[in-house]
Amino acid sequence: MKTIFVRDYDEMSEKAYEIIKEVIEKKEQPVISMTTGGSPRGLFKLFVEDINNGLDISHTTMMNLDEYMGPKDATYTVRTFMYENLYNVIDSKPKNIFLIDGETQDTDEEITRYKAILGKYPRDVQVIGLGTNGHIGANEPGTPFDSMMFLAQHDESTIQSTMREYGIEREEAPTEMITLGFTEILEAEKVILLVSGKHKAGAVKALLEGEITPDCPATALRNSDNAIVIIDEDAASLLEKDYKNL
Ligand code: PGA
C-alpha cells in the first residue's frame, strides 16, 4: 500500500484526479469504477471540468462500487449521485455506464449480472472512501477478508453518515447495500482510497498503525501493491509516526 500525504481536501481531489486522468489518456479502453459520497465530490468536479474542456472519454467505461437498496431515484442512491455529479453535467458521454440495480427483487441475480460485467471490463481504477468505522464499500467491521460481492447490512454509524451526507431522516435512510467485496475491490489495477477530515482520523490511525484485522476493514489494503491511500492533514492528525519524513 502506498500512502500520499496532502494538505487538504482539494489537494486530495487533485492527486486522485491526476491518477485517473493519466489512465484515461494512456489506456486504449480505460475502465474507471467510482465511489460516491463526500470524499469524491471534489474529484468529480475536476473530472467534469476537464470533460467539458475537451477531455475525451468516448473510449472510457464507467462503473460503481456499490448501490443502496431503495428506489432508484431516491436522493441517496449511487445512481442519483452519478447522474447529478457526472452524467447529467457533461457534454460528452462515456463508452459504457454500468450501475448496480438497487431496486432488484432478486439480489443474487443482480450480483451475478454485475459480476459478469466486472469480468468483462477489468478495472484500471477503483476509487473508494473510508468509513469512520474503517469500512470500505459496505464491507463493515467483521466482514471476512475473502468477501465477494454481496448484500450488506449497514452499521449504525454508516446509516448516520448517509443521513448527514444526504440530509435525510432515519426512516428514509437505506440500511442495506449491494457492494463489491474485498476480493473484487482488490482486483482493480489501482485502488485509490480517499481520506479527508478529522472525523476520519481514528480510522486512519487504525488503518496505518493498528493490526491487520477485519475489525478495521480498510486494513485489507495494507499488503496490496495496488492500493494508494491519499490522506489529508486532518485525517492524519492522530498518527504517531511522521510518515512524510520516514
Ligand atoms: P464519505 O463516506 O465519503 O461520505 O465520507 C465514506 C464512506 O463511508 O465510504
| Oligomerization | single chain
* Helix and strand pattern: EHEHEEHEHEEHEHEHE
Q: How does the major sheet shape up?
A: 7 strands, parallel
Distance between the termini: 15 Å
- Ligands, ions, cofactors: 2-phosphoglycolic acid
The stretches of 5 or more residues where confidence is low (pLDDT under 50) are: none
Structural features, described:
It is a single chain. Helix 1 (9-26) packs across helix 2. Helix 7 (201-209) links the parallel strand 9 and strand 10. 41% of the residues are buried. The protein has 246 residues and is an alpha/beta fold. The protein contains 7 helices and 10 strands. The strands form 2 sheets. It has a 7-stranded parallel sheet with strand order 1-10-9-6-2-3-5. It has a 3-stranded antiparallel sheet with strand order 4-8-7, covered by helices on one side. Bound molecules: 2-phosphoglycolic acid.
Furnish the topology, listing elements before pairings.
Layout (H helix, E strand, L loop, with lengths): L1 E5 L2 H18 L4 E4 L6 H12 L8 E4 L1 E3 L9 H10 L8 E2 L9 H14 L4 E5 L20 E4 L2 H11 L9 E4 L2 H6 L2 E6 L5 H9 L17 E6 L14
Parallel strand pairs: 1-10, 2-3, 2-6, 3-5, 6-9, 9-10
Antiparallel strand pairs: 4-8, 7-8
Helix pairs in contact: 1-2
The chain binds 2-phosphoglycolic acid (PGA).
The site of 2-phosphoglycolic acid has 8 residues, from helix 5.
Give a summary of the structure in a few sentences.
The chain has 246 residues and is an alpha/beta fold.
Defining key terms:
3-stranded antiparallel beta sheet, 7 helices, 17% strand, alpha/beta, 10 strands, 7-stranded parallel beta sheet, globular, 246 residues, binds 2-phosphoglycolic acid, 33% helix
